[in-house]
Amino acid sequence: MEWERMRHEWQSRSAETRETGLALPADAARLWRKIRLRDWMETLVAIPMMLILGIVAWPLWIAGFALSALSAALLAAACLLVALRLRRARRLFPARESDLPLLTFLRRERGALVHQRRMLASVLWWYIGPLLLGAFGLFFGIRGLHWHSLAYLVVVLLVGFGVERLNRFAVRNQIEPAITALDEQIRQLEEDDAD
Amino acid sequence: VNQALEQVIEENAGRLRRIARQYAGENDWQDLLQEICFALWRGLPGFQGRSNLSTWVFRVAVNTALQFVRKRRLPTAPMTREPVGSTDVDDPLGVLEAFLAELDPVNRAVLLLDLERLPREEVADVLGLSAGAVAVRMTRLRHRFNEQHVEED
Fold this sequence. Notes:
The complex is a heterodimer of chains A (195) and B (153).
Chain A: H1 3-16, H2 25-62, H3 66-92, H4 102-121, H5 123-143, H6 147-194
Chain B: H1 2-23, H2 29-43, H3 53-71, H4 92-102, H5 105-115, H6 120-127, H7 131-150
Helix pairs in contact in B: 1-2, 1-3, 2-3, 3-5, 3-6, 5-7, 6-7
């Protein structure tokens, strides 16, 4: 069958089917609200936590629990850091860019994934570490050297280790293959353009 | 925006379905279709008319489809599913759909845009390439299709 006829057949056959399944604007708006709420959830949690911990730090310091006070301050700073980093990531790679030309879109996607990989690789230093260390310091400063504190330390270390391993797993099994696939697609398109 | 979106979707429903069905399986092509419609809804207020509306719609659809394939980690080539609407290998459209399914997502997009009768300049605009590069790729793809399927007939 010649190509022109193939095109005609292609369009007419698909036109025969009139399935529903197209999103209505109201559904889209509802979905968007959900996504926005999910995006802001960490910030909505982080800011009150930061305020509470900041307020708690002072009376702890006055009461002589210096380690706990410093740990509370560390936790408050960590909450702020997490909120700021997530906000920065959202600003660097806004979701509303699916109308870019494909090659540009793929490059942006790759950029976002590389950024995500970098964030996950350093998650120990900006997310897990400060939060767990702060939580342990707060507990240890109040309880002192006690088997409860040591048990808590073990739990904290295990949680930190587990989260770190999960992140590495996600990078290796999800992000790296996606970057490789994007590299291949970008390479193909760039090669064509260079011909 | 809502009224404009409804009109865009109405005018492009067939094209959007055809794209969704080529990038997702029988069970999830409607999910992809929803994602494309959602991306259109998100992007429509920012559409400034620098390109044709149809080009813009195709851009959103192709980008969303490729993202969908990547996120769901669907196999890129070949897609392991029956051709949509036909399982008869003697049916030329069934053969075409099987050929499309064998292609990687980018080449599939090029061929789909051509099947949708998008002018070469607009295909180039969708892909972010020069019209010459699109012509070269299209020639290669048609040649490959003819070699694999037409000459056997």
